[in-house]
């Protein structure tokens, strides 16, 4: 799993100082990745806020197309109630949607990764939370990986779903 050979990488960003220099935005990259997904989407993230309702809509679109979606959220119960409600609705509507709560007993420990893997062929690995600030306003940077390393990132997400600190969210 330590093979770091990949066919292609791309830098994507947010923030006024970085935008407009021929580098794609994280938001538009995320949207195109989710639109291109054919089989599987994996997401591990610290936070999703109500201002990122576009992300929930994109996930819903994937689910409607029959794409398997796995979402791991840090401390699910601490996420905004509106987001929890929208996720619960999707859980009740789609059997191929799996949501996990990363909730270690150690209150100092968090899932702080921001990972999105598409069909185990592309992985967006970066610093931005799935929030309006993280996807639009802040100066954030992510790397889009294509190739074997993306598959390895997907395998790490699989491992996290089996970890004792991670539990399935039930409706």
Q: Termini separation (Å)?
A: 34 Å
The string of secondary-structure elements, in order, is EHEHEHEEEHEHE
Task: Please count the beta strands (DSSP E, at least 2 residues each).
Answer: 8
CATH topology grouping? Endonuclease, Chain A
Envelope shape: globular
Which strand order spans the largest sheet, edge to edge or round the barrel?
1-7-6-5-2-3-4-8
| CATH domain class name | Alpha Beta
- From the coordinates shown, what is the CATH architecture? 2-Layer Sandwich
Please tell me the total number of domains: 1
What is the arithmetic mean of pLDDT? 93
Q: How can the largest sheet be summarized?
A: 8 strands, mixed
Going by helix content, strand content and strand pairing, the class is alpha+beta
Please state roughly what percent of the residues sit in beta strands, choosing from under 5%, 5-15%, 15-25%, 25-35%, 35-45% or over 45%: 25-35%
Unreliable runs: none
Q: What is the CA-atom radius of gyration, in angstroms? A: 15 Å
Number of helices: 5
Percent of residues in helices comes to 25-40%
CATH homologous superfamily caption: Endonuclease Chain A
């Amino acid at each position: 799993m330590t093979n770091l050979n990949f066919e292609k990488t791309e830098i994507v960003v947010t923030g006024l100082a970085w935008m407009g220099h021929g580098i794609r935005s994280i938001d538009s990259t995320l949207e195109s990745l989710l639109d291109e997904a054919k089989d599987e989407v994996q997401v591990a993230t610290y936070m999703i806020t109500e201002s990122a309702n576009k992300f929930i809509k994109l996930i819903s679109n994937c689910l409607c197309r029959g794409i398997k979606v796995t979402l791991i959220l840090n401390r699910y119960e601490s996420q905004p109630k509106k987001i929890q409600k929208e996720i619960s609705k999707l859980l009740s509507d789609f059997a191929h949607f799996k949501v996990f709560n990363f909730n270690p007993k150690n209150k100092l420990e968090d899932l702080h990764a921001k990972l999105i893997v598409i069909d185990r062929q592309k992985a967006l690995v970066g610093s931005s939370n799935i929030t309006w600030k993280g996807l639009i306003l802040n100066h954030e940077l992510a790397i889009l990986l294509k190739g074997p390393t993306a598959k390895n990132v997907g395998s790490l997400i699989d491992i996290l779903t089996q970890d004792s600190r991670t539990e399935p969210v039930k409706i």
